[in-house]
Write a structure and sequence with these properties.
Blueprint lengths: L1 E5 L8 H15 L3 E5 L14 E3 L7 E4 L9 E4 L5 H14 L6 E5 H12 L3 E5 L2 H7 L3 H11 L4 E4 L2 H10 L6 E3 L14 H13 L17 H8 L6 E5 L8 H8 L5 E5 L5 H7 L4 E5 L3 H10 L2 E4 L9 H8 L4 E4 L2 H11 L11 E2 L4 H12 L3 H18 L2 H8 L5
Length: about 400
């Protein structure tokens, strides 16, 4: 097939970006002709399996987003702050970038992916990631109506979890068909490693990072990470990892509070407008690194004793938890929305007496501290058993190759 894969943003750093990168790679490896239409200026940094990238020229350099981040060369503005004329101009600019005929246009996000798909004249499907529904559409009738009218002619609306299926129906309305296909993990990249091997590889990747004087670019890893990580990770003290956006809704503040009184250190990976506040809240044994790419994370997670996903806002899925589990690092997730479905998948593989350690009560610092302490205190045999079970859950449920194939499955 010739597939146009439309995505409004970049190809690394956040969930829908990683999703787009991975799906492009897997479809290309499967023999499809894939063109990715997105705002990524450096596609050579990513393994796209032979897919090509086309960058639309946006009017006024205006980019509609759900969370305000810095995009070099563009002016990011919340979707709900765009006028109808600006949205129409944005759609036209993206239509102009769609190259020639295609068997399928696969778009990300109900808006603006749905609007681009509806105007394309091509057979099209759209993946509802959830951030657009919760952050921008909910409670805003004009955007809800635009989304509803756009989705009418979609070949299928795809959701990552039963939770997002319900949110879609609640916010935009009922649609058929809706396909449930969770995001996935590159199980050939995220693999378990011995500690010494993982630490050496992590430090080597950190030494390869581009210069970032004064940490001026929040989308780059912090300056001097190799030396900082070497000192911080020295010795055998239990290690906890958080990686994701540093915004209040991700709940990192709960993790920082839960760490107080525990004999553990934590590495916090990511960027966002809440970083300064989080650094002020953090106990001494917490290291902030800025964002990492997969080339860092595969090794950092293999070093960790637990990865915490403390989000206090609904999540479409829990890709970060699945990536951690693939390395054998047990995730501990807030039990709600799509994260609860990740917890259920882990529990299906965990030994019965350890299933309670897959999740904690959302927003409950005490429960998080208790579960984290128990997880970090596991003995060698139980820890080995749990790590193997976490990896097995990913292999059986969330590999990218299987996800990519299911996204193209015929619609009944």
């Amino acid at each position: 097939m010739r597939i146009l894969l439309w995505h409004g943003y970049l190809l690394g750093g956040t969930g829908s970006n990683v999703f787009t990168q991975a799906v492009a790679r897997e479809w290309s490896r499967a023999g499809h002709d894939v063109v990715v239409v997105c705002q990524e200026r450096h596609p050579e940094l990513y393994d796209l399996g032979g897919a090509r990238v086309v960058v639309p020229d946006l009017p006024g350099a205006l980019l509609p987003t759900f969370v305000l981040d810095a995009y070099p060369g563009l002016e990011a503005r919340l979707l709900q702050d765009f006028s109808p004329a600006e949205l129409a101009a944005y759609v036209q600019a993206n239509l102009a970038a769609l190259e020639g005929p295609a068997d399928l246009l696969f778009a990300n996000h109900v808006l603006m992916g749905g609007a681009v798909g509806a105007a394309s004249g091509l057979p099209w499907r759209v993946y509802a990631h959830g951030s657009e529904l919760e952050y921008s559409l909910r409670g805003r009738p004009p955007l809800v109506e635009l989304a509803r009218s756009s989705l009418v002619d979609a070949e299928a609306v795809v959701v990552g979890s039963e939770h997002i299926r319900k949110v879609l129906a609640d916010v935009v309305g009922e649609f058929e068909p809706v396909l449930e296909v969770p995001p996935g993990v590159d199980t050939q990249t995220f693999v378990p490693e011995e500690r010494d091997v993982a630490l050496a590889a992590l430090l080597e990747e950190a030494r390869r990072d581009p210069p970032n004087p004064g940490n001026a670019n929040e989308r780059l890893p912090d300056a001097g990470n190799a030396e900082r990580l070497a000192a911080f990770l020295d010795g055998g003290r239990p290690t906890v990892v958080y990686f994701g956006k540093l915004i209040e809704n991700k709940g990192v503040q709960l993790l920082l509070e839960a760490l107080r009184g525990l004999d553990a250190r934590a590495v916090v990976v990511g960027f966002g407008d809440f970083r300064a506040e989080l650094e002020a809240l953090a106990p001494p044994e917490v290291l902030f690194t800025g964002p990492f790419e997969h080339r860092h994370l595969v090794h950092l997670l293999a070093l960790a004793d637990a990865a915490v996903v403390p989000s206090i806002f609904p999540e479409a899925f829990g890709m970060v938890a699945a990536e951690a589990a693939a390395t054998g690092c047990p995730p501990l997730v807030a039990r709600h929305s799509g994260l609860a479905e990740i917890a259920a998948g882990l529990e299906a593989e965990y030994p019965p007496h350890l299933r309670r350690l897959a999740s904690f009560t959302s927003g409950d610092v005490g429960d998080l501290r208790e579960k984290l302490a128990e997880l970090l205190a596991l003995g060698g045999e139980e820890r080995t058993e749990l790590r193997a079970a976490a990896r097995r859950a990913v292999e059986r449920r969330w590999s990218w190759a299987g996800v990519a194939a299911r996204l193209l499955a015929p619609v009944a």
